[in-house]
Every structure is written in structure tokens, then in C-alpha cells.
Amino acid sequence: MTLFPSAAITTSALPLEVLRDSLLALEQVNSGVTMLALIAAGRPEQSPRLRCLLQGLIALVESCENDLGAFSR
Length: 73
Description:
The protein has two helices and no strands. The chain is mainly α. The two termini are 29 Å apart. The protein has one domain.
């Protein structure tokens, strides 16, 4: 399953407003995941798998933010 139509996405196809909204949404997700990771870090014996999952999610969100930031330039 793909998230995008078959046509290639270019910077001209993405309005600046969509990019800004996407970056803001990713920032909100990143903040929530970071908060959950901090809570899990306070109880490492109770949630080792959760901490690993949250670290992966943070890395994925940061990668998306970087990719979207490249489109806005």
C-alpha cells in the first residue's frame, strides 16, 4: 500500500501551507512520543520494549521532518 498517488511528488506540487501544517503535526507527534519516552525511561524495568519502540518512532518523525524541510527550500 502506498500513501502517495502514482505520480511523483515535486516541490511545486506541495503548497507551502501543506508543508507547514505537516511539519507542525509532526512536531506535535514528536513532542508526545518524547514525553512517553521520558515516562518510560523513568521506569526502565517495566518498559524496555516500549522505550525501544518510542526511540524508533522519534527517529522516524525526525526523518520525516527533515524530508519535508528539504521540500520547503
